[in-house]
Amino acid sequence: MPSHRMTHVSRSPRLRPSQNRLHSRAMRESLMASMGPIELSDLRAHLVRDAVIVVGESLDLLDVAEALAKDDKTRVSAWIESGALGKPSLEAIDRWSKPGAVKLTSVVVRPFVLVQESKSESN
Fold first, then answer.
1. Is 100 inside any structural domain?
2. Is residue 70 scored above 60 in pLDDT?
3. What is the extent of the structural domain holding 79?
């Protein structure tokens, strides 16, 4: 009678909740470290390749970057549908081109550059 051996099938490791939190924290810290001010001149190449996404002032830039990096389709879709997340309008780009009118903060979530504007402190 032939012997039946059980073969061990290797599975990709699942993250335990505590490991998942550490991974999330590390991702958030990495995104935070790459976040900073940006000028329109630095955005031009990204605008040409249609890779700039505007984050509305009602949203937290870091939360949006994290959701995009995690491919959280539910949250991202809801923000797009509400108009809080989208491509820059010609009016926005014109506003960004005026010296001192707005301050832009960016974070890169490849292949995109997320930007959020705020009023200049001098206004």
1. yes
2. yes
3. 56-110
